[in-house]
């Protein structure tokens, strides 16, 4: 169908109008990307973000003062409708959870500033074999970081970002007042709107590659970094630095998981039953030995979301097995 709104981007409109895209995060970068996607004539958008739009967002967002105090996703849905009324928009004021999605989208765009959310998006994308793109900034939006994932073809988000699980995040007082506080979320940072526009624009270049409209993606270089305004950054200013991510986390590489299981089994060889001495104490009655079995919620979360790097999985599996062994010992 001819739509005069898209006369300046007919080729892109022809492709995007049939796409169903999920956007996780409706902050400054996410909101800008949603705006960009609406202007391409995207067919369907699902917007996911649990937060309300705050006054501090106005200086760095496509939304304006009249959205303050209202849900970011609902206000962004209204914004999209003003650009492209034919776009089907679903606004979900929630944290990302795969069960929120009733149908399989063509692409997932994550700009969530929480490791946990990005990790959940990653495992969903891998499971459903959907391309995903992750975008963010460092240091007052002075360096852009973009990573794309093509399940089965490229390393995943965990291959690249798992180190962030153990990175100390600056303290945020909301942890004391917000019952839904997410420990892995990076608190709001300063950073200029102009820089956000550059990050979102760059991220959109990757999206063009992912939907087949540009030949810009080299599958060996899946992380795109750009020094926008950091004088101390080793990257050349305003140039794209493409980085290689090594595939091999236990989340996306079944081979790693099998290797881990083999290692763990080798470490935990069953003792020879003929040498069993009922009087022998296997474990000291230390405080450690009498601790509850294991933080199951912790393990369940990690396994369910696939949210663990190789090393984390290794440590957790060892701990879990050790705890189970102790518990069996105590029972018998
Ligand atoms: Zn991986």
Describe this structure in words.
The protein has 332 residues and is of the alpha/beta class. The chain folds into 3 domains: 4-243, NAD(P)-binding Rossmann-like Domain (Rossmann fold, 3-Layer(aba) Sandwich), CATH 3.40.50.720; 253-282, no CATH class; 284-332. Helix content is 36%, strand content 13%. The protein has 10 helices and 8 strands. It has helices spanning 10-16, 28-40, 72-83, 115-128, 157-161, 174-177, 193-210, 254-267, 296-305, 310-331; strands at residues 20-24, 44-48, 88-92, 107-110, 132-138, 143-149, 223-227, 240-243. Strands 3-2-1-4-5-6-7-8 form an 8-stranded mixed beta sheet, with helices on both faces. Helix 4 (115-128) links the parallel strand 4 and strand 5. Helix 2 packs parallel to helix 3 and helix 8 (254-267) packs parallel to helix 10 (310-331). It is globular, with a radius of gyration of 23 Å. It starts with 9 loop residues before the first helix and ends with a helix. The model is unreliable at 288-314 (pLDDT under 50). The structure holds zinc ion.
